[in-house]
Amino acid sequence: MLHLRVVSPVDRTDGVLDLLGAHPGVTHVVLLRGAAVDPAGDVVEADVAREAADEVVASLCALGVDRSGGMTLEQVDTALSDAADRAEEAVPGDGADAVVWEELIARTGEESRLNATFQAFLTIACLLTAVAVVTDSPVTLVGAMVVGPEFGPLAAIAVGLVLRRWDLVRRAGTALAVGFPLAMLITAFGAWLGSRADLFDRDLALAGHQVDFVFEVGPFSLIVALLAGAAGMLSMTSAKSAALVGVFISVTTVPAAGYAAVAAVLGEWDICLRSVAQLAVNLVGVVVAAALVLALRNRRGRRRDVGRPLSSG
């Protein structure tokens, strides 16, 4: 279930109540007259079955509530109510499979912004990769994969391509185009300082070890990227968000970027170029698979809604 809160202008509250009351996937409707201060109006709250949320939000937007008032959606972890059970049973589909498009756009839009936090996480992840390379530590490499925030912009690009939201594509593309080179430059500087301070042995760092798979580009590089992209998008569009951690550990985007920086400092340009190629393969593979999954889910959702008009006040 999702908890919906609507700030409604007084002249549209009756329409909002009629819309929510008529929809079988809505329950626990609460009206607070005059409770909203800015923007002024009434507050209407309700619990909505996840399968019905996209339709309900679209209907409220058709009433203009999003322009003259506002809406928020929150995940309800536990709902102990026969009315809630009936609402979930009354709408077709399963909550775990339902896509709330506005929620997805808002989430990917927020995670695709180039800001100090995104850049800091990406840089730390690349630096962790550098440590993993020079210390031959797969555990540290896994830590770098988990810390890396790059799936957010990749998912945003996929969403933007499928929904033709070019603003999302531009924003996410900028985050990746600026974020990765900057993180790699900082990592290269850190590796250079480490070599100057004799923190690691160059020959040992270049010797064959357990993290060499990062720059070994092959068919499985693309296969893993495609599978990770598909799993990541399924996770973001359903209630199975915990699966995202597994996606982060699967793809070698951040490790490839960090390895390329270290290899460049050590003058190993072949390894550097292969690492960059690995990075490109993973980025493209994740976006392609995520976009395909999202396109299929979008198509299924539209087929299900054919002939089912939106509720209106």
TrEMBL record:
It comes from the Bacteria. The keyword Transmembrane applies. Pfam families: DUF389. Keywords: Membrane, Transmembrane, Transmembrane helix. The keyword NADP does not apply. InterPro entries: DUF389 (IPR005240). It comes from Saccharothrix syringae (Nocardiopsis syringae). This is DUF389 domain-containing protein.
